[in-house]
Each structure stands twice: as structure tokens, then as C-alpha cells.
Amino acid sequence: MLVGSLTYTLFMVTFLFPSNWLLYLMSGVLGAGAAITWTGQGNFLARCSDLSSISRNSGIFWALLQCSMFFGNIFVYYQFQAKEHIDADTRNVVIGVLTAVAILGIVFLAALRPMPDNSVGTSEAQRQEQQNRTGWGSAVYAFKSAGKLFITRDMLLLSVAFLYTGMELSFFSGVYGPSIGFTKKIHTTPKEIVGLAGICIGAGEVFGGGLFGILAKKTTRFGRDPIVIAGYVIHMVAFFLIFLNLPDNAPFKDTEDISYLDPPRPWVALLCAFMLGLGDACMNTQIYSMLGGVYVKNSVGAFALFKFTQSTAAAISFFYSSHLGLRAQLGILVVFGTLGTACFCIVEWAVKRRQRESPEDSRTVSQDSRSVSYDK
Questions:
Q1: What average pLDDT does the segment 43-62 reach?
Q2: Which residues cross the membrane (predicted)?
Q3: Among 136, 220, 255, 340, which residue's beta carbon has the most beta carbons within 10 A?
């Protein structure tokens, strides 16, 4: 987590020295850093939790994480307000503040106390074997372990949900905002609505994460599937409203075109932004709860596969988003959202069934078989 966070800070510092080659280089470094950061913090979250607290901790983690989007967008919105051109002084202030916050975050990460491995069901001999592996041997062992986990039935099903989270992440972070800004009839200064939309997305993320943290006991009792289904419904409503509100060519350039609402409504755009954030919180908090609660025996591999699949989907989505109209992109999201929700629910129902059959210990997932098994 510490090494990964350094790459985030270095990436931000590069904006003080605008350069195409430097931006591309540090983007690749940031991608590598993000992979180890998310895998590490997922494993750390699993080590800090048990079955009774994983839902609460996932919600709190997600709410705190998304505060950056909420407060960061507010800060940037006021810094960039009424500016047609971002001058060097404004850029330096923004990057300087964000870099200072990132450095403060690194200090707090460095102060975290080590957490013991709580891999229930793993024998002492297996743990000792893992600890004795160093260097490339450890890396190869982790890679093989993740590979075996990936080809299990439940992880393959969950991968469909991971794909959807990557697609909708790239949509609301890279497509939706510019689509609002390019729709000239939505407001006299549509670029300002883009900043407000970012704030609303962050508000939805924080609200969702905080809500699920507070209601963690009910989540544990009734399962994760109702929240994922709720997130799916919220996203489908948001996609339908976006379909009605924004024109098909909005992702590409400034346009005077309209969709079904004439003129496009700013409040609908902001409502959809909040719903996109809230639905994303529904999905991701429950995925974290699933991986940290059920795959605790191999939480590193589980979170690594999650980030790998999600990032692959995000990269593919960013590629086709520059070629497909808004309606085609919404159609793809509807299809994968439906499939991803269904696959997640299938796994969750299987987990519930196994918990009833083996209530003493349902957290130990065997990665050595093609179907997930639970050992007492």
C-alpha cells in the first residue's frame, strides 16, 4: 500500500511539468501502483475483519475512500469556476494541495500497525510454507494461487460482476461528465455542470458507503444480494434518464442536438450523477464484503483478480467509448449490468446455502478445486 501510494503522488506531481511523454509514462507507473494498492488494501481490510464486521468495514472504507471525490470535486469546482483557461498559478495551487494531501495519506499508511494473517482453515504448515517463500518464489506461488482461484466456478461468475464495475466506472468517470459538458443546450455554461456532476457522484458514493456501514448488521442478516439488486435497479433508472436527457453524439464534441427532453434538464443530469455514484457504492461495497468475508483464505488472490478484471474492462470500455454513441454505450452497460447482477446473486445464494450446511466456518474457501468448497 505504501509503495502504491507513492505512485499516485508522483503522478500528480507530473502535472506541475506538463509533458505528453511524461504523462504517458507516469500513467503506466500509476496503473502498476494502483494494482498493488488495491490488492494490498483489500487484503488489509480482510485481515481487519471477520464475518460480523466485514460488511460494516467495507461500507466505512468505501465512504472514506469516496470522500476524496466529493471534497476534491468541490475544491476543483471553486478553483476552476468562471475560468475559460486554466492558468499556471491555478494549476499549481490545485496540484500542490492535492499532493500535500497525498503525502499526508502516505504518512498515515506508514503508521498502520501490522495485522496478523487470519486465514481461517489454512494449516500452520501451509502458512509456514507461504512465509518461507521469498522473492520470485513468493511471486510465482501467488500467481499460481490466483490462477487456481480464477478457474473456480464462483470466481468465474463473480468476474462478470467485476467486468460490469469496470465498465460503469469508466462510464461515469470518463464519459458521463464530458457528455454533459458537450451538450450546449443543457445550460448557459455547461462546463460548470460537469463539476457539479462530479460532486454529485461523490455524494452518492459517500452516502452509499456510509449507509451500508451503518446498516451492516441487517446486511449480514439478509445477505448481500438485496443491496446489489438495489444498485442494479438504481443504475438502470439512471441509464434510462440519461438516455432521455442527453443526445447520442454528446460524448464526442459540442453539440446542439437534443434527445427526448427539450431542453435537456440540468437537475436530471445531476440526479443521474448521484444515482451512478450510489449504484456504484452498492456494487463495490458488497463485492469487497464478499471477497473479504468469503475468500479470506486467499484474499490477496481474490482482490488481485478483482482489480485485474475490473481494470481490463475499464480499458476496453475507454477504447470503445471513443467510437460508439451514448446510446450504444448505455445498451452495453444494461446488458453487462444484468448479467453481472445475476452472476453475483448466484454466488451469494450458494454462499448462504453453504453457511446453512456448515455454520461453524463458511469463510475457508478451497482454491484447489474447480468448485468452491468449505472446510470446517
A1: 82
A2: 20-39, 60-80, 92-112, 155-173, 193-215, 227-247, 267-288, 300-320, 332-351
A3: 340
CATH of the domain spanning 151-357, picked from 2.40.50.100, 2.40.290.10, 1.20.1250.20, 3.30.1380.10? 1.20.1250.20
Residue ranges covered by each domain of the chain: 1-48+82-112, 151-357
- Write 177-183 long-range contacts (CB < 8 A, 24+): 178/250, 178/251, 179/246, 179/250, 179/251, 179/326, 180/246, 180/250, 180/269, 182/250, 182/251, 182/252, 182/253, 182/254, 182/255, 183/246, 183/247, 183/250, 183/255, 183/264
Tell me, what amino acid is at 356?
A: R
Tell me which H or E stretch contains 14: none
- Residue 117 reports pLDDT greater than 70: no
Task: Round to whole Å and give the CA distance between 308 and 323.
Answer: 24
Q: What are the phi and psi torsion angles at 374 (to 5°)?
A: -125, 125
Q: 269: pLDDT confidence band, cut at 50, 70 and 90?
A: very high
